[in-house]
Specification:
Layout (H helix, E strand, L loop, with lengths): L1 H15 L5 H23 L6 H28 L2 E2 L4 E2 L4 H4 L6 H21 L6 H24 L19 H19 L6 E2 L14 E2 L7 H20 L5 H30 L4 H16 L7 H25 L8 H19 L5 H4 L3 H30 L7 H6 L1 H6 L28 H11 L14 E7 L4 H10 L6 E7 L6 E5 L2 E5 L2 E10 L4 H12 L8 E6 L12 H4 L8
Antiparallel strand pairs: 1-2, 3-4, 5-9, 5-10, 6-9, 7-8
């Protein structure tokens, strides 16, 4: 029976985990779906006025990258080794050898290539020209990634033994993430910060790093979308790390080490920010999860559970320190933390293989050979990336231009780059469609037609039956959490017409200091709810008293009540005015 089970397992391993196995391709498909995760993270951690631009970029970097990878990148990465392992020979085997070409390897490397390009998008978000983004994404996919990936994964010099060991980067901590992080840093440095991110000594926005005296936090517009992106990436990372597993046992080990490192990093970030800022930082903790995923990527098949735990714990703290140093000390604006997450933790994860590899690591064997080889590989990959990206970004800056204009940036790239009033259509301030239907399914008339109809059918304004009745407007500003109590109190005394607005404001408390991604946010303007009512039949004093009782807690921030005189009110549909226009028609008034 054991022999029979062994035969079954051998068959399963051969069919599922071989280089032509189903899992290899499923894992590659999961890596492709990481594009959705990156899009959600970047969209959530930036402002709504650029949401459409970000989604477009994350769509097009894969589509454009596929074309250039087919034409050039695949040959440079997977072609016959040349120049002492420095490059693969470009070829068109993909077109000429349809039956014998390595299609599984091609698709696998294609989706990994797209990941490298999309990392850069987040660090340069909200101020990069769309054309420039398309160009540098093409270059990364065509040349930068394929050549350095050939060194370790395409049969190049890093795949050979050096000092008796080979370079370890199982799934791309250095080849993908560190390269993306370095590219992000160079791009964000040359591009400059978002307008208003850094302030000079007079509190005015500046783009010059030497003039920066104050750092301003710019929170993302949708933390929920950002969190969804992190969950998508975590899920897909099991394919990212596990796609190349050779058998069931190795696959299970990769799943475990990936999970342990990521959870350790997430907990470390939460605890560290909790101690440091007195409250656990939500967006930074989400970055902590990504940092753990990046750090374990290189050694997921080479370390044990203890090693995975320490790699993740260090990554969780490192990402917080790196984000704050990059933002507050170096004054390089990275809206999503891509440099810290991918660059710093890609570097750390690759170095960690030299320490925690169970077969060759320093902590397990006492030999420095693996650590030395890791450092050699890191230096070579970093040098290649730095040279390429500095040249690329400087050429773009001097030719087509790298940065959007200040007007485009302030008003939003959605509007100027894509003609999109808002990525959230229900909140657009302009008519969305001339063909919109009314509730009965009848097309609404155009503005001119409506004016003609109204002029013919609208009733004349009728004088109030209660001449001399006093009209008063009561405006209540209070905490959002007290709205339901206020609404119930006003309904109870007969006030049914409310206008409610979400606003920002502060009173004598002057807001409260909080932290966003390590930067103190002086919340001078706090979220409030503004409730407006106009009354005549219900006495103003009764309205004010009901509102006070509903809102009172005895603490600063309960709110304010303002009372104004109103000259007149007209009900549009009936033409009633004054006292009559404010009455509930169901009462027969």
């Amino acid at each position: 029976m054991p022999e029979s089970n062994d035969a079954i397992m051998e068959m399963i391993n051969g069919s599922i985990f071989g280089t032509t196995g189903v899992w290899f391709l499923i894992g590659a498909i999961l890596v492709w779906f990481m594009q959705a995760g990156f899009a959600m993270v970047e969209t959530g951690f930036t402002r709504a006025k650029n949401a459409g631009n970000i989604v477009m970029k994350n769509l097009m970097d894969f589509c454009l990258g596929t074309i250039v990878f087919v034409l050039l990148g695949a040959g440079l990465m997977m072609g016959e080794d040349a120049l002492f392992g420095l490059i693969g020979l470009p070829n068109l085997d993909l077109f000429t050898d349809f039956e014998g070409y390595d299609w599984t390897g091609f698709f696998f490397n294609l989706v990994f290539c797209a990941t490298t390009a999309t990392i850069v998008s987040g660090a340069m978000a909200e101020r990069t020209k769309f054309l420039s983004y398309c160009i540098y994404s093409l270059v990364i996919s065509a040349v930068v990634y394929p050549i350095e990936a050939h060194w370790a994964w395409g049969g190049g010099w890093l795949s050979q033994e050096i000092l008796g060991v080979t370079y370890i980067d199982f799934a791309g901590s250095s080849l993908i993430h560190m390269v993306g992080g370095i590219s992000s840093f160079i791009g964000a440095l040359i591009l400059g910060p978002r307008w208003g991110k850094y302030l000079d000594k007079d509190g005015k926005p500046t783009l010059k790093r030497r003039e920066v005296k104050f750092v301003r936090a710019i929170p993302g517009h949708n933390l929920t979308i950002g969190a969804l992106g992190v969950f998508i990436l975590w899920f897909c990372w099991y394919g990212f790390n596990g796609a190349a597993a050779s058998n069931m046992e190795q696959f299970a080990k990769i799943l475990v080490t990936t999970t342990v490192a990521t959870t350790a990093a997430t907990c470390a970030t939460m605890i560290f920010t909790w101690i440091k800022n007195k409250k656990p930082d939500v967006s930074m903790t989400l970055n902590g999860s990504l940092a753990g995923l990046v750090a374990i990527t290189a050694g997921c098949a080479a370390v044990d559970v203890a090693g995975a735990f320490f790699i993740g714990a260090v990554a969780g703290i490192l990402v917080v320190v790196a984000v704050e140093v990059i933002d507050q000390k170096l004054h390089v604006d990275d809206p999503v933390g891509a440099i810290a997450v991918h660059g710093c933790n890609g570097l750390w994860g690759t170095i960690a293989c030299g320490l925690f590899s169970t077969s060759t690591g320093l902590f397990y064997t006492g030999s420095f050979a693996q650590l030395a080889v890791q450092l050699i590989g890191i230096a070579a990959i970093a040098a290649w990336t730095i040279v390429c990206m500095i040249l690329l970004f400087r050429i773009l800056k001097r030719t087509v231009g790298l940065r959007a204009s200040r007007v485009e940036e302030v008003e939003g790239l959605d509007k100027h780059e894509h003609g999109l009033p808002s990525a959230y259509a229900d909140f657009a301030s302009v008519p969305l469609a001339a063909e919109m239907l009314d509730p009965e399914g009848v097309p609404t008339p155009s503005e001119g037609e409506f004016a003609d109809v109204a002029a013919e059918t609208a009733p004349a304004v009728r004088e109030s039956s209660e001449s001399g009745a006093k009209l008063s407007k009561v405006v209540v500003l209070t905490k959002q959490s007290k709205f339901e109590e206020l609404k119930a109190a006003l309904n109870e005394i007969g006030v049914t017409g409310l206008t409610v607005t979400q606003v920002l404001g502060c009173g004598v408390q002057k807001g409260a200091g909080e932290y966003y991604r390590g930067v103190k946010v002086d919340m001078d303007l706090l979220p409030k709810v503004k409730v407006e009512v106009v009354v005549s039949k219900v006495p103003v004093g009764k309205v004010v008293e009901a509102a006070r009782k509903a809102l009172y807690t005895g603490h600063i921030g309960d709110g304010k009540i303002f009372v104004y005189e109103v000259e007149d009110v007209v009900r549009v549909r009936t033409g009633e005015s004054g006292y009559d226009a404010l009455q509930d028609e169901s009462e027969g008034l």
